[in-house]
From TrEMBL:
CDD domains: GATase1_ES1. PANTHER family: ES1 PROTEIN HOMOLOG, MITOCHONDRIAL (PTHR10224), GLYOXALASE ELBB (PTHR10224:SF12). It comes from Porticoccus litoralis. It catalyses: glyoxal + H2O = glycolate + H(+). NCBIfam families: PRK11780.1. InterPro entries: Class_I_gatase-like (IPR029062), DJ-1/PfpI (IPR002818), ElbB (IPR026041). One of its GO terms (molecular function) is lyase activity. It holds the Pfam family DJ-1_PfpI. Residues 15-161 form the DJ-1/PfpI domain. Keywords: Lyase. Gene3D superfamilies: 3.40.50.880. It comes from the Bacteria. Belongs to the peptidase C56 family. This is Glyoxalase.
Length: 218
């Protein structure tokens, strides 16, 4: 029977939403593995909108996370608040600053971050059902909130970000771009992706391993 996997997106675009390459590589690998995928995103306004050509905030412009994420999902997307852990075998979160700006406020508050309630509820329901979770890029910064003290993860090897992650109660493990960090007890798989990757090919190596590892745990 095909595995059912939820993919949680945080907008569309590296600086204010989901990292597009990470999301597409994830969706491609899942499709190649024969998984049935449903994308989700929260129905909320983005923290801000970034001009991806200049990196500057577009003052006065607002965009909705769910509507923007629908671009990546080719319209096949549902509100994260409607996600039911009973319907899925696993969940994967691509990175991009949306994970640190929209799904959480890590970009603003660092180790004092909060995570939006709909994501906490869904991921913790998956965990309670002993179902695997994959987090990539900056998304593992939410590990301490989502999994509690002692959960192991990686964001790569940035010492400042790693210290902030450990201040939340998680354990950080340095990891190469082509590697994954697996916390067997929590069924949590993480990989640095574009926290370290210099091109799409490098990012794909770790992301493909993450998807494969998550599916193997189902």
């Amino acid at each position: 029977m095909a595995k059912r996997v939820a993919v949680v997106l945080s907008g569309c675009g590296v600086y204010d939403g989901s990292e597009i390459y990470e999301a597409v590589i994830t969706l491609l690998r899942l499709d190649q593995a024969g998984a049935v995928v449903q994308c989700f995103a929260p129905d909320m306004q983005q923290l801000h909108v970034i001009n991806h050509a200049t990196g500057e905030v577009m003052e006065g412009e607002e965009r909705n996370v769910l509507i923007e994420a629908a671009r990546l999902a080719r319209g096949n997307i549902q509100n994260l608040s409607d996600a039911d852990a009973a319907e899925f075998d696993a969940v994967i979160l691509p990175g991009g600053f949306g994970a640190a700006k929209n799904l959480s406020d890590f970009a603003v508050n660092g180790p004092d971050l909060t995570v939006i309630p709909s994501l906490v509820a869904f991921v913790q329901a998956m965990r309670e059902a002993n179902k695997p979770v994959g987090l990539m890029c900056i998304a593992p910064a939410m590990t301490g909130v989502l999994f509690g003290d002692g959960a192991t993860c990686t964001i790569g090897n940035d010492s400042g970000v790693a210290r902030a992650v450990e201040a939340t109660g998680a354990i950080h493990k340095n990891c190469g771009v082509d590697e994954v960090c697996i916390d067997e007890a929590n069924k949590l798989v993480t990989t640095p992706a574009y926290m370290l990757a210099e091109n799409i090919g490098e990012a794909a190596i770790g992301i493909n391993k993450l998807v494969d590892a998550v599916l193997a745990m189902t």
